[in-house]
Amino acid sequence: MNTRNQYIVAAISYLCAGMFFAASSLAAPTPVATYTFDNSFNAQEAEMAAITPIDPLSDNSFLTDTVFGEEHVVYRFDGNRQFDEGAGLFLFSKNALRNSDAYSIELIFQFENDQNNYKNIFGVSNRQNDQAFYVDPDNQLTVFDDLTADVPFTYDTYHHVVVTHSEANITSVYLNGVLQVQGASTSLDFNTYPNNPDRLIHFFVDDGSETSDGRVALIRLYDTELALEDVQEISSNPFERCTATFSANGTLLVPCVKITNELGVVTMYEAELQLVSSGGSPSFRLMAAQQISVAQVNDNYCTAVYSNNKNVSLPCVNVSDIFGGVIRYSADLERITGSSSLTFSLKQAERQD
User: Fold this and answer.
1) What is the pTM of this model?
2) pLDDT tens-digit profile of 55-78?
């Protein structure tokens, strides 16, 4: 086995009923509500409310577009700048975010070329206030009227944008995985707006005429403040949440592991493993695992599968090489019987073109 294949890793254990492990450094936090606009406004999470279109001119539509080099169904919003003709979306977020003061919103969207005016991305004032998140007339991301980024926002191209809000009213704005601006602001604090008890979030429309046509491919909500490393992780492959990753320190993160019991009940876990032997056939010890939502990763091609209380199949493993590149493999592992801890050996790995 060559040096690169020795880096290939993947493993997950069969978790006995009721047994959980403390998760210290697993994958990025799981979203509480996910909207992929695949010809539907429903959330992937069954218990969450659907997002609602605002389409006063009946010109909005689903369409297939190229997003980050791949074909995806997106939702195009098409309206006018008058208040009652603006197009976008709104969401009753209280079920997802509860009363948490810390939250994060992730979007993949584009504005069509329409410069020289404010363009609302989202706000939490129930369209009663100018304080919101925009692209400003200078084509910069801004949390009005407290924070403004330096990097220009470009049009007619999709961007990955994350906004986090902390309990201390610190707002952070990320563009394509890079922190743009951070500071104190109450503009996106739900508590600032007592006229919004249901925690409505309006996307791409505001209290006046500061709107623009565009397209949205993804919206996710988190009931926590994402850290920088979380944003960098989800930004690296925002549509693929189930790719396992192996890093130079020997840590293997497996975001999605599917386990089906003898009654056909499916549970899903995320797990962290550590390389413990690289001589001969590499082996990996389970360090932490926790249960996640099945709906969040349903029908995801890269979901790992644990079967027969023994075998692990990993369709997608990204391995960082010494040159700073990333190579994708598929891999199969097998549980080592008789070991004092849950440990797995690599049986085979195949590079994916």
Assistant:
1) 0.70
2) 999 999 999 999 988 888 999 999
Helices assigned H by DSSP within 17-129: 94-97
Q: Can you tell me the distance from the alpha carbon of 206 to that of 250, in angstroms, rounded to the nearest whole number?
A: 48
- Edge to edge, what strands does the sheet with 119-123 contain? 52-54, 88-92, 200-203, 119-123, 133-135, 140-143, 147-152
The number of residues in the chain equals 353
The DSSP element (H or E) to which 175 belongs, if any, is strand 170-175
At position 223, the amino acid (one-letter code) is: D
3-class DSSP state for residue 28? coil
Tokens of 284: 């990996």
For residue 270, what is the enclosing H or E element? strand 266-277
Instruction: Output DSSP code: residue 324.
Output: S
Sign for the pseudo-dihedral over CA of 276, 278, 283, 284: positive
From the list 68, 86, 48, 55, the residue with the least C-alpha distance to 221 is 48
The full set of domains in the chain, from first to last, is 3-27+241-351 (no CATH), 33-236 (2.60.120.200)
**Residue 334 is which amino acid?**
E
Residue 118 CA, chain-centre distance (Å), reads 26
